[in-house]
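Continuing from the previous page...

OK, I double-checked the sequence for Response regulator against my notes and this is the correct one:
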Amino acid sequence: MDQTQAVRGRPGSHIRKTGTGNTMPTILIVDDQSESRTTLTELAHTFQHQMRVEAFLNPHEAIQWLTWHAADLVITRYDLPEITGVEFIRRVRELPNCAHLPLIILTELNDKYARYSALDAGATDSLMEPIDHVECRVRCRNLLTQFSQHKIIRDRNHWLEKQVSEATSAVRIREQETLLRLAKAGEYRDEETGNHVIRMAKYARLIAEGLDCHARDCENHPLEAGRGP
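Thanks. Re-ran it with the corrected sequence; updated structure tokens here:
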């Protein structure tokens, strides 16, 4: 079960509900209307067995929270204090790691302009008020599932990139060591030739650095890299 702590204050403060774990999905609700915010908060806890809900009255504080925390779904209403829900969505999309964050906007039943504007600004979906609880629950569950799959794919890609980078570095090091040993082996038969090869590698690296070549290009002179500074 979730451990829930509610902190109520003046407009501009927020109600915070904190779960026991760090892996449960987090839903961010931005709604300055107390009754609607309470309804959404209670409904959000039915989306999955365990949910963490952060409910804000003030959109600026919600944006500040997103700057330092991760959410899995955001629900905001169109009519917000100080800025509209459309502007809120635009600002959220500009935050790091929020490009694919699911965003739902609540609009009046016949306000097509608000829905179109929100979708154009980056909203993932829209719901009309009064809220149909069944529709809201199904849509939010679907978005949470999609975002969870997105994070799995993203993390897998990051892991693969790391593995490729490490493997490439290992191959480069082995190549450098092999060529350096070949040069050293040449010294046993002809010391002048071995030293000459190493000098040429030094010259090549200096020329590359003088031409402002990329650091990786400079490292492509393995004899110099293998000998160290």
